[in-house]
Amino acid sequence: MMANQVQVNDTSTMIKTIPYRLYTEPQVLKEEQEKIFARSWQFVGHSSQVQKQGDYFTCEVAGEPILVVRGKDDQVRAFYNVCPHRATKLEKKEEGNKKILQCGYHGWTFNLDGSLYKAPNFKNTDSFCEGEACLRSVRLEMEASMIFVNLDDDALPLAESYGDFFTSLKDVEFLGELKKVWEKKRVIKANWKAFIDNYLECDHCPIAHPSFVATLDMSQYSIVACENYSVQGTIVKPDKQYGSVELNKAEFQGGRFYWLWPNMMVTIYPGSGNMTVIQMVPIDHETTLGVYHVFFRDENLTQEEKDLLAFMEQVRDEDVELVELEQIGFRSRAFKEGRFSPTEHGVRQFHDMIREALDIKA
Ligand code: FES
Ligand SMILES: [Fe+2]
C-alpha cells in the first residue's frame, strides 16, 4: 500500500490555503472546466456496465455529453454523444444495449465503432463514411476494471498519470469480481473543491465523526501524498467493528481512502469485498453533484454490507453539513484565505496542484 511519496511544498508562503474567491467566482469554474476537468482522466464507469457487445451508457465530462459503448469487436470506446450532422445529442437514455446508434432528428445511423452507417437525407453515403461524418472519438482507458476518459488528446496515458496508484490496487484481489450495486447522487451546496478539501484531512474527524474515530485507531492515522493522488488510512481498533459484525483479526486494516486528481475518491473498507468511487462534479461555482458508485460482489447485500453502507452515509452526511457551512464563510468578507495545520498536508498538495493548473501565485 505504501506508495512513492511526493514532497508537499513546505515554504512559509504556502501555509495559506488557496484564496476563497476560487470557491465563489463563476469564471473560476469556467477556467477549471477548461484547464482541469477537460485535461484530466475522469472516471465514467465500471467494466461491468458494458459487459456485452452493444452495451452502452452516457455521461458528462467537463460539461460535454459522452457516450461509452462496447463494439462488435469487443472494444470499449468513448465518443462525444453528439451527431455530426447537426449537433443533436445522440443517445438520450442513461444506459442500454444497441446494435446500431441512431440520431432521433434526421435518422443518421452509426455503427458501434462510431463510423457512419447511413445518412438517409444524403443520397450517396460513401463520401461520408470517413472523418467528419463519423462520431468524434474520445480517449478511453481501463485500469482495475474502472473506465476513464480524457478529453485531452495530449494527456499522459492513464497508468502513467497517477504514479503507482494502480499498482497499489493489485493486492486488492476482489476488484475484478465487483459489480456496481448502488448509485447515489446528492446535490451539495458548496464548491466542488470544498468537499475535496474535507476528504483530504482528518483533523475534523474527532469533532465531526464520532462513529469513525470510535472505530479507527486515530493515533495511527496517516495521509501520504503521492504523484497526483494521495492515500490515507489507519487500523481498526482491535475491540471495535463496523456496523454489527465483528471483524476478524486478520482484517484489522482500517481500509484505505484514495484521492485522485482532481475530483475522484476511492474508498475500500475492510470486511467483504467493497469499493466506493466518489466524484464531485461541479454543477455551478457554488453547487456540486456528489456521485457515489458503490461496488460489492453481489447485489444481494449481507447485513454486514448494509451496515457498512449506513456507516458511510452517516459519515457523508456529517461532512456535507460542514462543507455547506464552509461555503457560507467563503462568501464572507471576513477572511480572504485560510491556514493549514501541520497535518493538513493532503489538502496542501491539492491546493498546490490547483495553483499550478490555474497559474495562481497567491
Ligand atoms: S442532427 Fe442527427 S441526423 Fe440530423
Ligand atoms: Fe469527514
Automatic annotation (TrEMBL):
Record GO terms (molecular function):
2 iron, 2 sulfur cluster binding; dioxygenase activity; iron ion binding; monooxygenase activity; oxidoreductase activity, acting on paired donors, with incorporation or reduction of molecular oxygen
User: What Gene3D superfamilies does this protein map onto?
Assistant: Naphthalene 1,2-dioxygenase Alpha Subunit, Chain A, domain 1, Rieske [2Fe-2S] iron-sulphur domain
Required co-factor(s) are: Fe cation
What keywords does the record list, in alphabetical order?
A: 2Fe-2S, Dioxygenase, Iron, Iron-sulfur, Metal-binding, NAD, Oxidoreductase
User: InterPro entries under this entry?
Assistant: ARHD_Rieske_2Fe_2S, Rieske_2Fe-2S, Rieske_2Fe-2S_sf, Ring_hydroxy_dOase_asu_C_dom, Rng_hydr_dOase-A
Pinpoint the Rieske domain residues.
41-149
* Transmembrane parts of this sequence: none
Record PANTHER family: CHOLINE MONOOXYGENASE, CHLOROPLASTIC (PTHR43756)
Question: Per its record, how is this protein called by name?
Answer: (2Fe-2S)-binding protein
**Organism in which the protein naturally occurs:** Aneurinibacillus migulanus
